[in-house]
Amino acid sequence: MNVGEPGLWLYLLLLAPSAAALLALVPYAGVSRVVARAGSLLALASALALMIDGTSGRWGAYLGLDSLSEVFLVMVASIYATSTWYSEGYLRGVHRPFLTPQLYYALLGAFALAMIATLVVTDLGLMWIGIEATTVASALLVVLERKPTSVEAAWRYTLIASAGLTIALFALLLIYADTGTLDAFALAASRPALSLPIEMGVALALVGYGTKVGLFPMHTWLPDAHSEAPSPVSAMFSGVLLPTALYAFLRVYAILPTPTPALITDLLVAFGGATALSGAFLLQRQRSFKRLLAYSSMEVMGIAVVGVALGGVALYGALVLLVAHAFAKSAAFYCAGNVLRSTGTTRVDEVRDLQHRMPRTGGAWVLASFAVTGAPPFGTFLGELLIVLGAIAAGWYWLALLLVVAILVAFLGVNSQVGRMVFGSAAPMGSSPSTAAEESAAVAYLNVGVALAVGVAALPYLSNAIRAAASLLGGAPP
Amino acid sequence: MIPTSEVVAFVGVGVLLTALFLQSESFVNPLIQGIAVQSLLLAVLLSWLAWTERSVDLALLAGLTVVVRALVIPGVLRRQIRAFRWRSREIHAANRVTGHALAAVAAAIVAWFVFQQTLASVFPEPGAALPFVLLVQGLLMLATRSNTLVQVIGYLEEENAIVYAGALFASAFPLFVEVVVFLDVLGVVLVGIILSIQRDVTGSPEEAGLEELAG
To answer: For a tag on chain B, would you pick the N or C end, based on fewer CB atoms within 10 A?
Structure first.
């Protein structure tokens, strides 16, 4: 469907968060909020227009689009928009914030811009700069609430993510030294012959970008940063930052000749499987509901990486999983933010009876909780099912079993804790929680609805774009 | 005229020695001086290569290395020590530096060996393994130290490794100057902003091991 000149939408997509980030710095908080909201909506409209148009191509030396980037752009722009809308209420509940609302919205826009820029450039070096820029822009957002824990989390995040990205940069140096170019689109089209520097470069890129994806054992920054960041930022971290880092790896991975070298497949399965399993088991012992969600993200990322390794239908499943998870997990973090604002705690054992105390948030959280843990008919279920089926079809029976165990353990762990908070009758909370946060529950319902629609293929343009993206990477949509 | 291979060898030996020195030191002021010296050594190599190859990019990198990693960030780190009103010896590492030094030597040998076994045939330039060794040393420092000021030095060492690798075997790497500028910006964010917030909130550069962040 032709929705206008794609190049214009592309420039608008970059311009909207840039303008929102700059104009948010005006000295009036109300204007800042309006500008941020308008910018995020404009970015979402542009991303949707590009996906509906479905045009692939290049604009200038460094900008380009294909179906893979369009799917990720819609994810990023959507969660940026919902997080921006959700932020207003959340910020009202933060006492003595480290950042003014203007600076907060400016950094949020810069964070989104860095992710969007990563997704629209064709050069692997520029993608690396984009991922590094996400660290610079988001590190200060983590310390919004000025707590010792949030400062330490920001420090760990910056340092560990940067260390990982240094390894990713080393990987790019190896690839460049062998191929003489970093043009991701050209390299994917020509698929240079397999050489030691390329194979080692892809392996190091997995470790480097995998640090930002939250792969075990480089994941240690993830639960800290996700749990200490303000909830709208946590939603962006879990929902779209981790997939954007995975996207940067996928662009490196796509330069490998087919069939994929066994070493790389084995590495992906090892890292992905270990991440899924460790995330699922580590979340069982979490006392903070935000850390619980963070470990759940780790588990999902691990499963998605296994899907990438398996290719075929599993690769399509991985993309479906990433898209559905982005919406579901952001909804769960919005609910967590509502509860935190109302009760002042993130401890699971201090929150009970949300069904009566915060019925709208409680309801949304139950749905979001099912959605993030792969319950049917949400998109996460479809994605995880396809990955498990892909493992069976490829003869990786033990891997399929491992994935099923991780999925079931995570399902029970997350839903039992959320169920206790929502339906638990004991009421350790001293006073009735404030209900002001309830007004923000609508954003969570919206995102849960999208996660559901992805599962039942009710969004034709998005479903088609995911299919095209999977085919581009050598996957086989069912 | 001095052959380039001798300049590379001279800088390589110096970089390796400073890397091992950094691992074996628990006082922060000598660590800051050590990373500044390492950056200056790299700047010498970059300047030499810039001159022999007539490369503006390498000249820019040499300038950035001197200004940011030999002067500005070390200067800010010294100010942070004073601002923290904190004795300049790393508390937790003081009785473990011997182990760190031994681990560093072992890591250097293993990294060298791995490079020789895998990439030496592709990158036969003299000293091409050293950036890889330096990268491993920086990672080791980040992993073993709990003091944020020392971790910044580990980060700078990693950045030096990247610049070193780029200069030796990928000097035409596109956007390399921009990449290094970004790494420097992140370094400045680390030492200039997050360390200042940490000073205000916790008053100590030592990681607290907070219970809320366990698990």
So the answer is: N
Q: How long is chain B?
A: 215
Among A252-256, A281-285, A472-476, name the one with the lowest average pLDDT: A472-476
Confidence of residue B123 (pLDDT cuts 50, 70, 90): confident
Among A245-254, A428-437, B168-177, the range scoring the smallest mean pLDDT is: A428-437
Instruction: Report CA-CA distances (Å) from A179 to A248, A458, A473, B156, B193.
Output: 18, 42, 20, 28, 39
Mean pLDDT computed over A388-393: 97
Give the Cβ contact number of residue B54 at 10 Å: 8
Cβ-contact B24, B97 below 8 angstroms? yes
Q: Determine whether the interchain pair A132/B186 forms a contact, defined as Cβ–Cβ distance below 8 Å.
A: yes
Question: How confident is the model over A16-51, as pLDDT tens digits?
Answer: 999 999 999 988 888 999 999 999 999 999 999 999
Phi, psi of A213 (to 5 degrees): -70, -25
Look at chain B and report how many structural domains it folds into.
Answer: 1
Distance set, CA A281 to CA A299, A371, B143 (Å)? 9, 19, 24
Tokens matching residue B31: 């660590």
A199 interfacial to chain B (CB closer than 8 Å): no
Q: What gap in Å lies between CA A432 and CA A343, rounded to an integer?
A: 8
Closest residue in chain B to residue A141, using alpha carbons only: B194
Nearest 10 degrees: CA dihedral of A365, A366, A368, A374?
150
Look at B194 and A285 and tell me if their CB atoms are within 8 Å. Answer: no
Helices (H) and strands (E) in chain A, counts: 20, 2
Domain extent at residue B84: 4-207
Q: Give the angle B54-B59-B65 at the CA atoms, nearest 5°.
A: 155
Task: Look at chain A and count its residues.
Answer: 478
Shortest alpha-carbon distance between residue B200 and chain A (Å): 9
Picking from B139, B165, B182, the nearest residue to A129 by CB comes out as B182
pLDDT at A149 over 90: no
Q: How far is B173 from chain A (nearest CA, A)?
A: 7
CA distances from A319 to A75, A289, A382, A471, B154 (A): 11, 26, 10, 11, 36
From the list B161, B169, B194, the residue facing A155 with the nearest CB is B194
Asked whether the ipTM of the predicted complex exceeds the cut of 0.90, the reply is no
Tell me, yes or no, whether B215 lies in a domain.
Answer: no
Contacts of A170 (CB under 8 A, 6+ apart): A204, A208, B132, B135, B161, B162, B165
Q: What sign does the CA torsion over A298, A136, A204, A307 have? A: positive
- Where exactly are the structural domains of chain A? 259-478
Residue A60 has pLDDT above 60, yes or no: yes
* Contact list, A169 vs chain B (CB under 8 Å): 162, 179
Q: d(Cα A411, Cα A418) in Å, to the nearest integer?
A: 11
Q: Does A195 touch chain B (CB under 8 A)?
A: yes
Does A347 touch chain B if contact means CB atoms closer than 8 Å? no
Q: What count of other Cβ atoms lies within 10 Å of the Cβ of residue B124?
A: 9
Residue A430 confidence (pLDDT) above 60: no
pLDDT given for residue B144 in this prediction: 84
